[in-house]
Amino acid sequence: MQELLQDGLSRARGVLTAPVDPGSRLYWPYLVTFVLLGTLSWALYARRSGRGPLRWLFDRRIWGHPSALVDYQIWAFNRFVSPVAMISSAVSAAAVATWLALALGGVATGWSGLNWTGYTTVVFTVAFFVVNDFGGFLNHWLHHRIPWLWPFHAVHHSAEVMTPFTLYRKHPFYDLSKHALRTGINGVFQGLVLFAFQGPADMVVLLGLNAAYSVFQLAGGNLRHSHAWLHWGPVLGRLFISPAQHQVHHSLQEQHRDTNFGTALALWDWLFGTLYLPSGHEELEFGLPEGQLHPDLGQVLWRPVVDAWRALRGR
Question: How many helices (H) and strands (E) does the chain have?
Answer without folding.
Answer: 15, 0
